[in-house]
Design brief:
By secondary structure, this protein is an alpha/beta fold. It has ten helices and 16 strands. It has two domains: 196 residues, no CATH class; 248 residues, SGNH hydrolase (Rossmann fold). The strands form four sheets. Strands 2-3-10-5-6 form a five-stranded antiparallel beta sheet. The longest helix has 18 residues. The two termini are 33 Å apart. About 7% of the residues have low confidence. Keywords: Hydrolase, Signal. Pfam families: Lipase_GDSL_2. This is Rhamnogalacturonan acetylesterase.
Length: 445
């Protein structure tokens, strides 16, 4: 698909920015099928960030090299001097292992890597002057195309324009885009190779999907950070949607066409389903449960592992500091469905209430998006809130003893009654900023 080349307004890359990239060793070398480099596995690419010391088989790329279709790789335009840098490379749809070598010969460095649309992969990797470290993560690249497979007809996901075709286009194009962020990002080498690994599919609403700009974020964007290489997180959620919308827009078909036996499908809806009651088109214990049942049956028929997640609560407190329930019926319907269908269940509704109450009426404000001063969004989260909810999801996967939990990072621990201190949270924000509220749930601002 064609996309706007950047989700934030493009600006010419300045000489000062090119110099800054060299200073932090962000000069790339890439081997692609179109580049003059030794033959390699199809889909494999190699990147070296210090042109003078590029290893054999790596193709040096100057810091000022912008992406072009003919070249098939390059920096995305629009980054401010000294700010985060974005690099894209053409890749076919699929899962890939990405290996990065980090470090600066002359200075201490701190590097955070995000993929595609702000999916957190590596968080604040620290290196001393002269030190190098190697890290690997697994990432999913996808397009709207639906191939005929697993009994699914060919076609395309019905993307929302302009939200998905412009602001969220990086999540759908035939490219891998990497964001290098941090106080002093230092990336020396990158290698990309196809990965025949399990996929953890996500299906949900605005609290799950890849949000395009700060201050909004979702637990789905934070989830990859808590998994080791060897499993890819493929986020098919979208703002404003329900189980019914996922079927109508063929997001469910897209997942089912790509699903391999043993893959996991985590599903969380509820916030927007409440509008169906208002419109007289269903309710939690009727249509909502029926749509859950249909999804579970479809996933199981193709050898997948379905997981039902109850929707997290909105922020609202009574006089005693207890969270006011706004989604209790949908949480109960999800719980009943999981029990009746014998499906793994993550009670994010309960864990979110525990989390918010632990933070308190005032402290919990720092877990939610504030798109304008004094204007708090009590439904949608910021990076910190999403990070904590992602930990709750991981905790639920472990408690359910699902096979995918074997890939959780070593030493993982989380107790929603004892959340991470807000002051200690330091994931650097991406430069994309939006004042547009995510779609749906308009009655609950």
């Amino acid at each position: 698909m064609q996309r706007s080349r950047s989700p934030f307004p493009p600006r010419p890359r300045s000489a000062a920015f090119a110099a800054a990239l060299s200073l932090v060793t962000l000069s790339f070398a890439i081997s692609t099928l179109a580049a003059a480099a030794p033959a390699s596995t199809p889909g494999q690419s190699k990147f070296a960030f210090a042109p003078d010391t590029a290893p054999a088989g790596f193709t040096a790329v100057a810091p000022a090299t912008l992406y072009s279709d003919a070249r098939g790789y390059g920096f995305e335009p629009g980054a401010a001097p000294g700010g985060p840098a974005y690099f894209s490379v053409d890749l076919a749809e699929g899962n890939y292992d990405v290996t990065v070598t980090l470090g600066d010969d002359k200075a201490a460095a701190s590097t955070t890597v995000k993929a595609e649309l702000r999916r957190l992969m590596l968080e604040n990797v620290q290196t001393a002057p002269g030190q190098t470290v190697t890290r690997r993560f697994t990432v999913n690249v996808r397009t709207p195309r639906i191939a005929a497979a697993n009994g699914i007809e060919a076609g395309e996901v019905r993307l929302k324009a302009p939200r998905e075709t412009v602001q969220e286009a990086w999540a759908w194009d035939r490219r891998l885009t990497l964001e290098f962020n941090g106080s002093h990002p230092a990336v020396r080498n990158i290698e990309i190779a196809p990965a025949a690994v399990p996929t953890l599919f996500l299906l949900g609403d605005s609290t799950v999907c890849d949000q395009p700009g700060e201050p909004y974020a979702s637990w789905g964007q934070m989830l990859p950070r808590f998994f080791k290489p060897g499993v890819a997180v493929a986020n098919h959620g979208e703002s404003g949607e329900t189980y019914r919308d996922a079927l109508a827009r063929r997001r469910t078909d897209k997942i089912l066409s790509s699903l391999r036996p043993g893959d996991t499908v985590v599903m969380q809806f509820g916030h927007n389903d409440q509008k169906q009651i208002k419109d007289g088109k269903g309710g939690p214990f009727t249509t909502y449960k029926a749509e859950i049942k249909a999804h579970v049956a479809a996933v199981r028929a193709r050898g997948g592992v379905p997981v039902i997640v109850s929707p997290m609560e909105r922020r609202g407190f009574d006089a005693q500091g207890k969270v006011l329930p706004s989604l209790a019926d949908y949480a109960e319907a999800a719980r009943q469905s999981a029990r009746e269908l014998d499906v793994a269940f993550i009670d994010l509704n309960a864990m979110s209430r525990t989390l918010y109450e632990a933070l308190g009426p005032e402290g919990s404000k720092r877990a939610f998006a504030e798109p304008a001063p004094g204007k708090l969004d009590n439904t949608h989260h910021n990076a910190y809130g999403s990070y904590e909810l992602a930990k709750a999801i991981v905790t639920g996967l472990q408690a359910a003893r699902l096979p995918v939990a074997a890939f959780v990072v070593d030493g993982f621990r989380f107790d929603p009654s004892r959340p991470d201190p807000v002051a200690a949270f330091s994931v650097p924000p991406s430069p994309q900023v939006t004042h547009e509220r995510p779609l749906g749930d308009e009655a609950n601002k």
